Amino acid sequence: MKRVVVLLLVFALIGWQVYLRIVAYQKPKTMNRQTPPVAVEVKPVQKTMVREMGLFTGSLYPRAQFIVAPKIAGRLEKLLVKIGDPVKRDQVIAVLEDDEYLQQVEQARAELDVARANLEESKSSLETGGRELERAKVLRQKKIASESELDAAEAQFSAQSAKQKVAVAQVEQKEAALKGAQVRLSYTQIRASWREGDRNRVVGERFVDEGSMLAPNSSIVSILDIDTLIAVIHIIERDYSKVRIGQEGTMETDAFPGKAFSGKVVRIAPLLKETSREARVEMEVPNPQGLLKPGMFIRVQIEFAAKKEATVVPIGALTKRNSKEGIFLADPQERKAHFVPVTLGIMNKEWAEIVNPAISGLVVTVGHHLL
Fold first, then answer.
1. Which of 307, 305, 310 is nearest to 54 (CA)?
2. Which of 160, 200, 275, 348 is the most exposed place for a label (fewest CB within 10 A)?
């Protein structure tokens, strides 16, 4: 029994020595297995002006436009304007054949003359009837005329008075008919009329040619006000609260590369369409030189917010760890970088404002996904 115990102790000592040798052999290898360095790109934290810009696309529209159309039917005798021509307010732009309407005026004038002659005749008859009535009254008082003769004189006077009223009404009727005929004749001179502003406008489109037979309200030309244009853009729900009436923006168009045009927000739709979740925004764009045209495609920038001396980092420095937004601050001396959760402020394509905490130094901009 003692011999067995001794053998067990010997084997235990041998096993312990083997274990110590293995641990001693592997320890240097384990110590040498350190994480290899990772190459990253760093940039300094800066203090600078930062702006949050909204980028949109849209189209240009005339501030006002309408279709010039005849109020009466007729054949187009003359079309006095072409596409692109300037037009003054109340300028005659087309003429219809007026022979028929001239004849209607002459006929109405002749009928008025007849009505006036009838009125004069009725006045004369009424005066005669009045004298006859007075004579009958005198004779009746002298017992020369009978009661029936007096009644007949009064009846005749009443009839003549009624005829005069009819004649007066007929004159008024014929005067109104003459005025109506003259108005219809004036409609053969088709004018471009508008109420607001005396600035010239331009002809946008032409729909008919001379000689065409036109019905009432047939389109002849369109008239545009392009001294000031309306830029229409659509904003998503996220940006709706950032856009305000009076905000200024700049826009560019492919027709004039590198040239910026300014505009101002004048109207914001009070609703977002359910299909697109977008709201319509209108901006007034001064166009004194007439370079911009309705229908042009535009790219618009609107400044949502701005801050001077803001603490900013390149937008590429932002990353996430455990669902937290943050950055990696680099320590050049220790050659290490550590993650710092941050609260963001204004952001644009290049920079992100760090509101909290206060930071300085270098931030990792490329390679932080390897850290």
1. 305
2. 275
pLDDT tens figures, 211-235:
999 999 999 999 999 999 999 999 9
User: Alpha-carbon distance 370 to 35, whole Å?
Assistant: 12
Residue type, 137: K
Q: What is the Cα–Cα distance from 147 to 145, expressed in whole angstroms? A: 7
At residue 263, the 3 state secondary structure works out as strand
Cα–Cα nearest to 261, from 306, 309, 229, 294: 229
Structure letter (DSSP) for residue 325 = E
Alpha carbon of 246 to those of 52, 226, 231, 302, 316: distances in Å?
A: 17, 21, 14, 11, 33
Q: Are 142 and 150 in contact (CB under 8 A)?
A: no
Domains of the chain: 41-52+308-370 (2.40.420.20), 56-63+225-305 (2.40.30.170), 66-192 (1.10.287)
